[in-house]
Amino acid sequence: MRLGCHISMSSPDYLLKSVQDMISYDADVCMIYTGPPQNGRRVSIDKLKIKEANEYLNQYSRSCFDIVVHAPYLINLANTLNPTTFANSVELLRNEIKRTDAIGSPYLVLHPGSHVNAGCTAGIKSIISGLKEAFLQEQKCVVCIETMAGKGSECGKTFEELRSILEGVDYQHIGVCLDTCHVHDAGYDLHNFESVLNEFDRIIGLDYLKVVHLNDSKNTLGAHKDRHENIGHGEIGFDILCSIAHHPLLKDIPIILETPYINNFPPYKDEIQMLRSKHFINIK
Fold it and tell me: Would 229 disulfide with which of 95, 128, 222, 234, CB 3.0-4.6 Å?
């Protein structure tokens, strides 16, 4: 089990502080944004302290391949109604690919985007076009399209929609990030996880499952709302999420917690300990 969590990255120590936090949480992996997730402002790569982070991790027989990067939220390749939004999204994604490769991370997680009432077919076609335009010939990282809850006009709420995106880019440099809160809110019943995993394998293929976001949900099954909850405090429940974390087919896949802070404090160390020990503790 490769278990970790989302960790912030900020000045002055940037990636070095992120990996120090990862170790302090007893995590094997972490997920970062290379700048503020709500906008495209980014400091230069040479300020991220990548070398120092690698040197720190080497003390623990680890490498930067324990890091997953998440693309900023404002990227919307599905927008066909605003050419400026689409063009800016392509440029932002291309820049994040370069930064992900510079960090040494194999995976860049991307929300597929919203079609803004143009229809999912048009949105998916636009996503495919944007990915092809953003991908670099020398690119190393895999862009992982995240499963979405289906709120508003989001694309990627079903495995079939994700498969259409992967097929459209000929499966090059692309994979899937499965978010447990999102698929629950989209209507996939994780209480029968084997069935969900089999459906994923049949429609997309398990080889393309590269990252898992492990989150409980505040919402009932199929609510299409996307509201994360702490492990064991939501509608999915501890037992199901713990069984997913320990599933043998996921043992080599980075599993990332994106659960809410509790009293302004990150709960990750406690949640990681609970999942490893398979013993729930009420931390709220």
Answer: 234
DSSP string across 128-188: HHHHHHH--TT--SEEEEEP----TTBS--SHHHHHHHHHHTTTTTEEEEEEHHHHHHHT-
The Cα 104–Cα 64 span in angstroms is: 6
Cis peptide before 112 (omega within 30 of 0): no
pLDDT value of residue 35? 93
pLDDT confidence bin for 172, thresholds 50/70/90 = confident
Residue in the structure block whose two tokens are 């929300």: 111
User: Which secondary-structure segment (H or E) carries 24?
Assistant: helix 14-24
pTM, 2 dp: 0.96
d(CA 43, CA 171): 31
Q: How many CB atoms lie within 10 A of CB 47?
A: 12
Residue 63 has pLDDT above 70, yes or no: no
User: If we measure between CA atoms, which residue out of 72, 107, 70, 109 comes closest to residue 88?
Assistant: 72
Instruction: Report how far residue 71's alpha carbon sits from residue 77's, in angstroms, rounded to the nearest whole number.
Output: 12
75-130 residue pLDDT tens: 999 999 999 999 999 999 999 999 999 999 999 999 999 999 999 999 999 999 99
